[in-house]
Amino acid sequence: MEKSEFIQIRRFIVKLGKMLHKYGTPAFRLEAHLSEVASYLGVHASFISTPTSLTYVIWSDKHEDEYTHAARVQPGDIDLGSLSRTDELVNKLLSGELSLSQADAELSAIDELPPFYHPVLEFFAFGLSTGSFAIVMGSSFDDAFAAGAIGLVMYLIYYFSTKSKRVALMLEPAVALIAGICACAISAFVDPAINIRLVVLSSIIIFIPGLALTIGLAELSSRNLVSGTARVMDALMQLFKLYFGAFLGIAIGFWLFSEVAMTPTKPTPFWAIIAAVFILCSALVVIFKLRLKHAPWAIICGILGYFGTYWASKYLEFGLGTFVGAFAVGVYANLFTRLAHAPASIVLMQGLIVLVPGSKTYIGLNSFVSGQDFMQTEHIGQETFVIFMSLVAGLLFANVIVPTKKAL
Question: Which helix (H) or strand (E) covers residue 281, if one does?
């Protein structure tokens, strides 16, 4: 292999790995995908991916050339649209439609694309997702409207954090603090019927790291021990920061506006829950930056995951219904890969987000710290643990029954 060719190949692989990491690709998927690309390009390679670092070792057939590259990176945000475009680009390279130099140029173009959805659309997506989540939790319309209104405020803080590093550093406690104060204000001046703690949880649900915890456990189950441990610990720290912010915000809100006795209202009917699941999945299309051609597939996956778990929970106890939902989502995602020739992650994330017990983790932490339950739950800690294990097991079984044809 010529020296110049080797340099071109390793530059492309390094750039591809950094972009996939930036778009929130789990370690085991990223490493497997890069290995496939390296093999096609005629080099040998070894990769180590963690939430904050990437290490590459690339060498030619007889070790005439060997290259080591280590990079400090920030934990990636989920951007399924850019992930899909990157996968299509790699497919064209592997099929011979693009040369390596052309693929390298287009890879840079993908990274420079403007946001697919306008901030105004993301603003309303935050409000719809937080309000619909409150209904999915079995709460009332009062709680849903309050959570939706606060969710709009949460987006403004999130948007500001993308422009300011100082705000980004304190994002989790800041959003939870402001959500707590806003919920207390709504209870005091607008609607005393709301469940303040449930409204706060619903309004910050986008920031609850349930999905990160699940991905971390999946990485651990695939023996990516360093990445999995780091991701789980990072998710736990995010959860602690959110809980502290909410705890402090509610305390300040009660001090400012005085605590109002809640007037319980009836939970929403089942038809409202069905509508809320659809609205939640549709809003997540915008939040996860999916391309429109993949949106129907992703929405169906989210609905399948929720109602698969709902149906199975009638026959299986203690959170084991999640295993059925995760298995259904995993099989569906792998079938999607075969039919649409796109990464399973595109629809898998949508299905997992309605299954992960991020909210129950938060409720359990609240119960442990304050000794108070703001929802009727029993054995919340054990059930959360079982749900996490059921999620990982369901995905493992799905990959055995219907193997995926793509590493991503």
Answer: helix 270-287
